[in-house]
Amino acid sequence: MYRLGERTAWKQPGPPAPSPATCLFRSISTASHIDVSARGYPLPCFGRTGGASRLRASGERAMKVLFVWDSAEYLRFFDSVVEECLARGHEVAIAYNKTNIKKLGGLRGLRAIEGRVRVLGLVPRNKRMWRRIAYGLRGTMDFVRYFHPRFTVATAARARMKRKALPAGYRWLDRIPRLPPAAVRVLERLLATVERAIPVHQPIVAFLQREGPDVMLVSPLVDCGSDQVDTIKAARACGVRTAVCVASWDNLTNKGVFRIEPDLVVVWNDAQKREAQDYHYVPAHKITTTGAQLFDKWFVTQATRDRTAFCARVGLPDTRPFLLFTGSSGFISESRAEVAFVLRWIESLRSSGDPMLRSINVLVRPHPYNCHSWDPDPLAGIPGAVFFPRTNYDPMDEVNRADFFDSIYHSTAVVGINTSAMIEAAIIGRPVFSLLAEEFAGTQQGLVHFHYLALENGGCVRVASVIDDHVRQLSECLGDLAEARAETERFIAHFVRPHGLDRPATPIFVDSVERLAAAAAPAPQATPVTTYLLRPVVLGGALIGMIGAWVQRPHPVRWLLRRSRKMTRRTTKRVGRTARLTAHRGAKQAKQWREIVLRPLRARR
Length: 605
Prior knowledge:
Elements lengths: L21 E3 L17 E3 L6 H8 L5 E8 L3 H13 L3 E8 L6 H9 L4 E5 L6 H16 L10 H10 L16 H15 L6 H10 L3 E5 L8 H11 L2 E5 L5 H4 L9 E4 L2 H11 L6 E3 L6 H5 L6 H8 L7 E5 L8 H16 L4 H5 L1 E5 L19 E3 L10 H12 L3 E4 L4 H8 L3 E4 L12 H4 L9 E4 L2 H13 L1 H15 L9 H14 L10 H23 L4 H49 L1
Parallel strand pairs: 3-4, 3-6, 4-5, 6-7, 7-8, 8-9, 10-11, 10-13, 11-12, 13-14, 14-15
Antiparallel strand pairs: 1-2
């Protein structure tokens, strides 16, 4: 059995050993729709190998798996699943709903594996009137979930959803502080019924019919007003099996709702299973628990550098013990606020009564997409404190992944605000701490998933409400690491690997997908007559929302006049362009008529 304690000594380690369970995808020529530079990525291989020969020997049919992700960045959550499917001889295709110019790591990763998988590019997107209406309706559903009493304290998440997804004409819903859970469920069910009136986007249907997958795996489906609802609708129309795969520990409580019920929901643990039932209203028989597949790699990864080489790389002055502070995303902790928090935290360490804490080194590792306020270096005048990396970095890059692991591996303990790196630190066997701060109240105590980490809730993080308690916890724990190791092992056993510490989640994940593919395919669903009857209701709701948004504007009449002039100019331009094109084509056809028909006739005379 895998035991966390086997790899938890923070003292000087021996020479690094090569990873026994990584395989490097070879680089290939880029596709026309990917215009980023090539780079190889190590994707962990777990479970069975030699899949093609195994399938031939057993007579099993290889399945066609289609991954549909919100963006290519989700490769980092499911890279091991992709590799396991390939190892078992299955055919894999990947499509995504959008590209993010700030996060190109996923596109580089797709380029590295293209040739072994089929990279299909962007899913067809609806750009017509119904897409705007669908986004507003789905955004309203996402906002209504925050009426649930469990989300009363989730002020930051609620404000984000209001800003990003709730139509302006329905902002008055924010005046409702909370509703009983039964009322929220009724509202969500009602809105989901109305949402069915949104027409199926036929280009997606054609896309799925052309690809013909046995099973379609969608993630995350819970983004604000997600277009992925259209993908599952199209799959239903084609009779394709669908599964929603939870990408991260906060997806089911920190974002929107499913809005449509898939054939299967793949979650990490029992906590997420309860969330899927209580907040997304998915029946228990449609939920399977597999463990956290994205963390499998950390159970087998080894340090790539010894302590001396690592400290020299990141800029630490010597090889003394150091604390690692792991940064959070921009939503959790705004970059400038995080810098100020870290400076206060280091000052409290330097003024503590514990000689070890006063002299301990500090390494700060900013979040890859939230490190702009770390330049210029705010730690330049603090001895024994550095931050690394010093620029935005790709978390999927092989070197950056190694640096991340080594940062945790060589640290004495890990401190953070609210980040998945706390879970990764627990897997690697380091004690984890967090300090509550007023400026982060909405993204610490206000978020459901943060409470799973607290020690009193069966988690692995020692959470302190004041700085003095935090310093005392650090001093006590660093004096005796055995208890912290036992706490982290208990947490990992039920949160990350509920089927056993020695059982990787990736093979269990793929097993569940194979069972879904082996089940009878659902019959293609035709559009019910009731949806046509509901469409006037949807259009009326959209019109009311537009009128409400118009009335709320500071100068509605002036805005209406500007809008009218803009539409008039646009219409005039289009009509003029059409008229010029028609005249050009008419002249060209007249010329061809003269040359092909009239000129030969005149010549005969």
